[in-house]
Design brief:
Length: 335
C-alpha cells in the first residue's frame, strides 16, 4: 500500500493546490532523508490536494500530459504547442449504473436478484456481467458471465431495476492495469453490471462506440488511471460515485461522419486482442487504435501525424510508472 506524508499550513481559505514530491525508494538513513527533504521543492510537481492524481507519479511529463488532457488540451512530450481536444466529464453525456448491492445482495436485503452462473444452453432473461476474468476480457466485446434470477416477490422491482440500469456499455471499476486490458467493454445484448463492471448508459445511444474506442485508447487509459485511486501498484480503482467525473472524449463534438467512422473502426477492432494496459508500449492493436482515432486525414480527430512519435514516448513513460506496471517484468526495459 502507498504511504503519504502531508506537510501543510492550516488556512481558512485556499485553492487546493499542492506540491507533490514522489520518492523512488525509501531513504536508507536520516541523512539521506534530510537531503531529499531539501531537494523536495525543486523536484516536486504541481497538483490538486483533493484530486491527488500527481501522488506517486514518477514522470513529470506524464503528470503534465494528464493534467492538460483532463482540461481538454493535448500536450505531449516534445510537443511545442497544445492542441485542443473535446473532453467532457462522463456524467454530462451518460448515466452510471446503480451499485451492485442494489441489484443483488445476501439476505436480509431488498435487492431484487440472486446472481448465479448461466446454465449450459440457457438464454438468460436477465444476463449480467458480474465478475472479472482477464483472459475473457482481451477483446472489446465481452459476453455476460452470470444470470440475475428474480427473488420471490420482487418481480416488479426486478423489471424496474433492469429498465433503469441495463446497458451494452460497461466500465471497469477495479482496473488491474498490469493484467486487464479494458477500461470499458461492450456486450452484444443489454445486461446488468456488477461490482467489476458497472453499467454506463449514454443519453444518446450513438455515443456508445466513440466512448468505448476512446476509453481503450492510450489517452483514455491515462485519464482513467489519473482519475482512479492508486493505493495499490498496478491497479486503478474508480469508486462508483466517481464514475460521472471521469474525463472522456465528448461524442457530441463529433460530426455524423466522425461517428460513422467510429462505427467502422469498431467493426475492425471489436474482435482484435489487446494486451494488458501496462503493455500498451508494445501492443500493436492499441497503437493502431490510437492512430485510427487521432492521427492523419483518415482518422477520427485528424491530428497531425508528426505528433505520433510524441505519443509513442508518452505511452512508454506511462507504462514505466510503478503504479501502472506494479513491478511486473512486462514493464518497459530499455525500449
Amino acid at each position: 500500500m502507498a504511504e503519504c506524508l502531508v506537510v501543510a499550513t492550516k488556512r481558512s481559505e485556499g485553492d487546493g493546490r499542492a506540491m507533490f514530491s514522489n520518492l523512488e525508494a525509501r531513504p536508507a538513513s536520516l541523512l539521506e532523508a534530510a537531503i531529499i527533504a531539501k531537494r523536495a521543492r525543486k523536484q516536486a510537481v504541481q497538483g490538486d490536494l483533493l484530486n491527488a492524481g500527481a501522488a506517486g507519479v514518477r514522470s513529470r511529463d506524464v503528470v503534465n500530459a494528464a493534467q492538460n488532457l483532463q482540461d481538454g488540451m493535448l500536450l505531449l512530450p516534445r510537443q511545442a504547442q497544445a492542441v485542443a481536444l473535446p473532453i467532457v466529464q462522463l456524467g454530462e453525456i451518460a448515466k452510471r449504473g446503480i451499485n451492485n448491492s442494489d441489484i443483488s445482495r445476501k439476505a436480509p436485503s431488498n435487492a431484487p436478484f440472486d446472481i448465479r452462473p448461466i446454465r449450459k444452453g440457457e438464454v438468460a432473461t436477465y444476463p449480467a456481467l458480474w465478475r472479472h476474468d482477464a483472459n475473457r476480457e482481451r477483446y472489446m466485446i465481452v459476453q455476460p458471465d452470470t444470470c440475475a434470477e428474480v427473488r420471490a416477490g420482487y418481480k416488479a422491482k426486478a423489471v424496474s431495476t433492469w429498465d433503469r440500469t441495463a446497458s451494452r456499455l460497461q466500465i471497469n471499476q477495479d482496473f488491474r492495469l498490469n493484467s486487464q486490458s479494458l477500461a470499458m467493454c461492450r456486450t452484444l445484448e443489454k445486461c446488468l453490471g456488477g461490482r467489476a463492471w458497472p453499467n454506463v448508459i449514454p443519453h444518446d445511444e450513438e455515443h456508445e462506440i466513440p466512448l468505448l474506442l476512446w476509453s481503450n485508447s492510450t489517452l483514455g487509459l491515462i485519464l482513467f488511471w489519473w482519475q482512479g485511486t492508486l493505493q495499490q501498484t498496478g491497479r486503478a480503482i474508480l469508486k462508483i460515485s466517481a464514475i460521472p467525473d471521469l474525463p472522456v472524449l465528448d461524442p457530441r463534438a463529433l460530426t455524423k461522419q466522425q461517428v460513422e467512422h467510429c462505427q467502422y473502426i469498431y467493426g475492425r477492432f471489436k474482435w482484435r486482442q489487446f494486451l494488458p494496459a501496462n503493455e500498451a508500449y508494445r501492443d500493436d492493436t492499441r497503437q493502431e487504435l490510437d492512430r485510427e482515432l487521432l492521427f492523419g486525414m483518415y482518422s477520427v480527430l485528424k491530428l497531425k501525424p508528426d505528433l505520433e512519435d510524441s505519443l509513442d514516448l508518452l505511452r512508454c513513460q506511462w507504462c514505466a510508472e510503478p503504479s501502472v506496471h506494479g513491478g511486473k517484468r512486462t514493464r518497459p526495459q530499455n525500449v
